Amino acid sequence: MEAFEILTPLSIILCILGVFVGIIFGAIPGMTATMAIAIFLPITYALDLIDSLGLLLGLYVGGISGGLVPAILMNIPGTPSSICTTFDGYPMTQKGQGERALKVGITASLIGGAFSLAILYFFAPVLASVAIDFSSVEKFLIILFALTVIASLSSGSLLGGIFSGFLGVFISLVGFFADNNQLRLVPSFLENQLYYGFALLPVLIGLFAITQILQEAEKGMKTASHQKFEFDKKEKFSFKVFKGQWINTFRSSAIGTFVGILPGVGGSAASILAYSQTKNFSKNPDRLGKGEPEGVIASEASNNGLTGGALIPLLSLGIPGDSTTAVLVGAFLLQGIQVGPLFITQNPDLWSGIVWALVIANIVMFLLMFLAIKYMAKIVFVPKQIIYPIIIVMCVVGAYAINNGVLFDVWTLVLFGLAGFVFAKIGIQVAPLLIGFILGKDLEKYFIDSLKGSGGDLTIFFTKGPIAIVLWVLIFASIIFSLYQSWKSKKTGNDIRNAA
Amino acid sequence: MKELLTIDIKYDEYHIIFPRIIMGILILLVVLMLIKALIKRLKDGSLTQFKFKFFEENFDKLKLFGTIGLIVVYVFFLEIIGFIASSIVFMFLLTILLKGNFQRKTIVISVINSVTTSILVWFFFGYLFDITLP
């Protein structure tokens, strides 16, 4: 089989391990898939790229899927993307159908994951081949488009989202500029430490792991009380549940995948959109929210549909589809590989390795959770007070090791951990900020390169060609869409973005 | 019109063109957000009220500031007393802080957690994987 020619035995083992650990991270409320990947990145220093991708993709799939366990059993979403799973999953548990709900969710997750993987497999190379001929003008506009989409679709206000994105760009500009080797935005006493700007990895780990721990500490870190789950007294799970639900399953998978393709939009938006669509099309909309498998299917198919979707812009354009894939950018950079339009054609083995690793991760996720769900369910009680100190030490080790022992990188970690905590309070959104930070240097490079070509003439961005015009239309469409959404929400009072 | 839309780009200024533009955009956005907030307050008649609260209601001061303090002290001592020693002390104190009591069980758990984790991390990362540790 092709899979075993490309994937090493180690990468398969790591992938399985990754899924297992990912499920644990997803299942413990307050720990997310993004956090799992951020913490495990440092371990990948010692691994080959394909092995590390096996581990990280396993963590990704496991982390997104594990969130359904506490969502269904305790009415607490384990990850933001399983919010909608609580709507019908928990009522099912209350009716004594906990195991049935979990198995419905797990099966829907598998279908969603497989669907999005197929789309990724066929669509990413096509998108990449279109993008290969892009000049710096189009590349600049693509990033600008990514930033406006993130800002307009993420939760909170449009202005705040755009501000967050540009703030991320601004932070990324700290350090030297490659074209003329000049430093900027660096205080003179930190010239040595900040010559290359803030290292990506400590920033990521700080924003996603340290910030989360501080937020939990603020809330007093209460443990979930032990409750006994009533597993299936009345109705056993059977795949017949899906009879009559195929349209719902595939619509939700497709919504998840599509939302995943849009840069910067997280799983919560995907599952809320899928859930509301299911409600619109359902034969019995009144019963949704009271313990219908239909709702669990919608939420879980869509949030796993996100996994493949979010990888599409990453692997074809170099633009991360959500904050979790943004962390994956760090993994590629560690190995010295540039993700972008040339990635798939230049690294065909790696590309099929990624696809196979995702196939394996989805199957392992399904088997692990389906067969061992009763034991997996106990994970939600692992005390955070013991895990968080371990996580902080792992973060510090990771940050310290990134440049072979630079203490300043550890300070960067602490700084961005604190910054993330403050940002959340004052309405600066982390997803646009992070994507701005990751793409900021490229944005600048393409901007300067475009102007060099035109002799400083700004109209080049409008007159370059048809693709540039299409991109401008898309940029304005995303802003108008956002304004329309907020206008509509003011009128009706309910808004997808607010719920996300 | 043409001149308005042309930027003067000189080689020795390449590095500050873009930061200036981004800075300008950020300032513009702040101004816009302020104006928006001001209009909203004028409409609601709540111009002088200030309701923003930074921390959550009844937030856990000890755990929050204790965690921040411990992290900062930990990083400060990392290169001075070495990875294993500083990690053991840090994890021991943090586990007790987050558990929030001094019962025998808590102390035993903290000791086991901090010593095993620190030594395992050192063994796997520093020894097996040859990753640089403080």
UniProtKB/TrEMBL annotation, chain A:
Q: Which residues form the DUF112 domain?
A: 12-434
Asked if the keyword Transmembrane belongs to this entry, the reply reads yes
> What sections of the protein cross the membrane?
12-41, 53-73, 101-124, 130-151, 194-214, 325-344, 350-373, 385-402, 414-440, 461-484
Q: Does the keyword Cell membrane apply?
A: no
Q: Which UniProt keywords apply?
A: Membrane, Transmembrane, Transmembrane helix
Task: State the Pfam families in the record.
Answer: TctA
UniProt superkingdom? Bacteria
InterPro entries for this protein: DUF112_TM
Q: Which PANTHER family match?
A: TRICARBOXYLIC TRANSPORT PROTEIN
Q: Report the protein name in the record.
A: Putative tricarboxylic transport membrane protein
TrEMBL record, chain B:
Q: Domain DUF1468: where? A: 17-134
Q: Where are the transmembrane segments?
A: 21-39, 64-94, 106-129
Q: Name the domain of life this protein comes from.
A: Bacteria
Keywords linked to the UniProt accession: Membrane, Transmembrane, Transmembrane helix
> Would you tell me the protein name for this molecule?
Tripartite tricarboxylate transporter TctB family protein
